[in-house]
C-alpha cells in the first residue's frame, strides 16, 4: 500500500481510539470541575457534564475533520477479491493481435441503470492493463450491428443469455462476423449495495459518517467461432468512505474500474485464479 494510503489507513483505524480517549479525558476533567461547583446536586452536574462533553468532543472531531480534509483526495479503504478460471496459454498473445468487442452488461432489472458506468469502466480497464487490450466499446458494438441489420440478433443473444446463461453459437458467430472480431467480452452485474453508517454521535449531532459500498461483478470472454467460454472471473469489492464533504467521496466509476483492472490484469493476463487485498 502506498505511503499516502497507509497514513489514511492509520488515521481511519485510530479515529475511534481518539474519540474514546477524548471522551474519557473530558469526562474525568468535567466531573472534577462540576463536583467543585455544584457539590452533590446530581441533576445539575449531569446536565452540565453532557454539554461540556459535547462541546469538547465536537472540537476534537472538527480538528480531525480539518486533518483529513487537508489530503488531496477522498479518505477511504477498499478490499477486493476475485476468482478466475484458468485460461489457454496462447490467449494473451491472441488478444494482443486483435480487438475485443464489449457486449452490453447483463444483470437484474434493478441494476440496468448502472450498465453505462460498467461499460465505460471496462473500456478504461482494458486500456490501462499491461499489455493493453484493444476494444470495440459497447456503444460502437451496438452501432455497427445496427448498421448491418443485426440489432435484433444482438438483443436476442443477450436476452437468451439472461434466461439460459449461455450465448447461442450460431447467433454468436453472426455477431462476431458482423463486428469482424474473434473474441467478445460479456460483463455481468450481480450486486450493488450502498449503506451510510453513523460512526460517532454527540448531543444528537452526527459527527462522522461512513458510506460502505459493496459491488459484485463477473466477466466472461467468449470465442465467437467455437462458441466456447475461454475465461471467466467473478470479483467483489467493498469500499468504506469517510463522508467529510460531498467532494471527497470515492467515485463509483473509479471503484468499478479498479476492480475490473485487477480481475483482467491478474486473472486474464497473468493467469491467477485467486486475487485479493487492499488497493490504492
**What overall geometry do the principal axes of the alpha carbons give?**
globular
Helix fraction, binned, reads 40-55%
- Which range does the strand content fall in? 25-35%
**CATH architecture heading of the largest domain:** 3-Layer(aba) Sandwich
Q: DSSP helix count?
A: 8
How would you sum up this structure in a few lines?
With 280 residues, the protein is of the alpha/beta class.
Which key features would you list for this structure?
single chain; 280 residues; alpha/beta; Rossmann fold; 2 domains; seven-stranded mixed beta sheet; 8 helices; disordered N terminus
What would your notes on this structure say?
- This protein has 280 residues and is an alpha/beta fold.
- The protein folds into two domains: 3-69; 76-277, Rossmann fold, CATH 3.40.50.10610.
- The protein is built from eight helices and seven strands, in the order ααβαβαβαααβββαβ.
- A seven-stranded mixed beta sheet has the order 3-2-4-5-6-1-7.
- Strand 4 and strand 5 form a beta hairpin.
- The chain is globular, with a radius of gyration of 26 Å.
Which secondary structure elements does this structure contain, and how are they paired or packed?
Layout: H1 3-38, H2 42-69, E1 76-84, H3 91-97, E2 100-102, H4 115-128, E3 135-136, H5 138-147, H6 151-164, H7 169-179, E4 183-202, E5 205-223, E6 228-242, H8 252-269, E7 274-277
Parallel strand pairs: 2-3, 2-4
Antiparallel strand pairs: 1-6, 1-7, 4-5, 5-6
Amino acid at each position: 500500500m502506498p505511503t499516502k494510503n497507509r497514513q489514511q489507513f492509520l488515521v481511519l483505524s485510530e479515529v475511534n481510539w481518539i474519540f474514546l480517549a477524548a471522551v474519557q479525558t473530558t469526562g474525568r476533567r468535567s466531573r472534577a470541575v462540576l463536583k467543585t461547583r455544584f457539590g452533590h446536586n446530581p441533576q445539575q452536574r449531569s446536565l452540565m457534564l453532557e454539554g461540556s462533553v459535547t462541546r469538547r468532543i465536537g472540537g476534537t472531531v472538527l480538528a480531525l475533520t480539518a486533518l483529513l480534509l487537508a489530503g488531496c483526495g477522498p479518505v477511504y479503504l477498499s478490499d477486493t477479491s476475485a476468482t478466475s478460471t484458468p485460461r489457454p496459454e496462447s490467449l494473451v498473445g491472441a488478444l494482443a493481435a486483435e480487438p475485443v468487442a464489449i457486449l452490453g452488461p447483463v444483470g437484474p432489472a434493478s441494476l440496468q441503470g448502472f450498465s453505462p458506468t460498467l461499460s465505460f469502466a471496462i473500456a478504461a480497464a482494458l486500456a490501462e492493463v499491461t499489455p493493453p487490450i484493444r476494444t470495440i466499446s459497447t456503444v460502437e458494438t451496438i452501432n455497427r450491428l445496427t448498421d448491418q441489420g443485426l440489432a435484433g440478433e444482438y438483443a436476442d443473444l443477450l436476452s437468451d443469455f439472461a434466461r439460459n446463461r449461455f450465448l447461442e453459437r450460431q447467433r454468436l458467430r453472426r455477431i462476431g462476423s458482423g463486428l469482424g472480431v474473434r473474441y467478445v467480452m460479456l460483463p455481468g452485474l450481480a450486486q450493488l449495495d450502498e449503506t451510510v453508517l453513523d460512526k460517532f454521535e454527540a448531543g444528537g449531532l452526527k459527527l462522522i459518517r461512513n458510506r460502505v459500498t459493496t459491488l459484485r461483478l463477473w466477466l466472461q470472454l467468449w470465442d465467437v467461432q467455437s462458441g466456447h467460454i475461454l475465461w471467466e472471473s467473478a470479483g467483489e469489492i467493498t469500499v468504506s468512505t469517510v463522508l467529510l464533504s460531498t467532494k471527497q467521496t470515492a467515485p463509483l466509476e473509479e471503484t468499478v474500474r479498479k476492480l475490473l483492472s485487477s480481475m483482467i490484469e491478474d486473472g486474464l493476463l497473468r493467469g491467477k485464479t485467486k486475487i485479493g487485498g487492499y488497493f490504492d
